[in-house]
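step: validate -> pass
step: tokenize input -> pass
step: predict -> running
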Amino acid sequence: MSIFSQAMAAALPAFYSAFGRTVAYSRPSTGQSVSLVGRFAKNTVDMVDENGLHLRAESEDLYVRQADLALGGAAAVPARGDTVTDADGNLYDVQAGQAELRDSAEWRIPLRRVDS
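step: predict -> pass
step: emit ->
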């Protein structure tokens, strides 16, 4: 692990304490859930297609500490079909694929907000 990675791992608790939001992470297939602190990141990409039409794509990710994502007392890996509910009651579906950030103690979890 690089010096930068070690410094980031040491700083994560303070970063999450200052900028994180409490969410409920659930796995409906097993009925298990955990309350944890994560941070949301919204990504916007603007494009112009071959006809000059302007397109915008948005995606949202949730970053959580790997050590905090435990279901039924065991470490869990984010999976499609899991759900996230934020403090405002917004529901998100976990999308296919998750990324363990290289040299990091975080998961990047792609989300899709479920319209109510």
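step: describe -> The helical segments are 3-19.
step: cleanup -> pass
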